[in-house]
Amino acid sequence: MSWHDLICLGVLSTTFPALDTSQVRKVESVDCLREELLGDFPDVPSDFLNKDMRVKGEPMWIRFKRGVSFPPFRVTRCRQVPLHMKDEADALLADLEEKGVLGRLECLETSENRFRGHFVPKPGGKGVRLVTDYMLINLYI
Fold it and tell me: Which residue from 32, 35, 47, 123 could staple onto 28, CB 3.0 to 4.6 Å apart?
C-alpha cells in the first residue's frame, strides 16, 4: 500500500511527507503517555501468549517471489540443547505446542522444509528464547 493510498484512507495527513506539527500531541511525560495507552488498550501489551488471545482472522500465507523456485531445504542434524537450559527449553516447547504456536510432526510425517532452531537465554537470565534461522528462505520471499 502506498502513502498515496494511506492519505486517501485518512491514515496519513494530506501534507505528508511534510511534518504537520499542529497534529502532534504534546504529552507531559512518557509515564503519562504509557498510562493513557494502557487505559485505552489494556489487552495489547503482554509478557505472555495466551491461546485465547490469538489474532483473529484468516491464517497468513507467505508467498515466494514470482518466477523463483525454492529448493527444499532440510537440516537433518539437531543442535543439542545445553544442559543448563534443557528444563526451561522443554517447558517453552510444551507451552508453545499447547497454545498452538508450534505443532509436533509424527515420526513418519515429513515436512518439505526444516530449519534449525536453538535456544538463547533471555535478557536478565529469566527463561530462554527459541531462535530459528530462516535467512535462506527469506531470499525467496
Answer: 32
Map out the domains of the chain as residue ranges.
Answer: 3-45, 46-141
Give start and end residues of each alpha helix (H) in the chain. 3-8, 30-40, 86-98, 135-138
Distance of CA 84 to the CA centre of its chain: 26
Burial (Cβ within 10 Å: 0-12, 13-18, ≥19) of residue 95: middle
pTM of the complete model beyond 0.70 = no
Amino acid occupying residue 62: I
48-85 pLDDT, tens per residue? 666 666 666 777 777 778 888 777 777 777 788 999 99
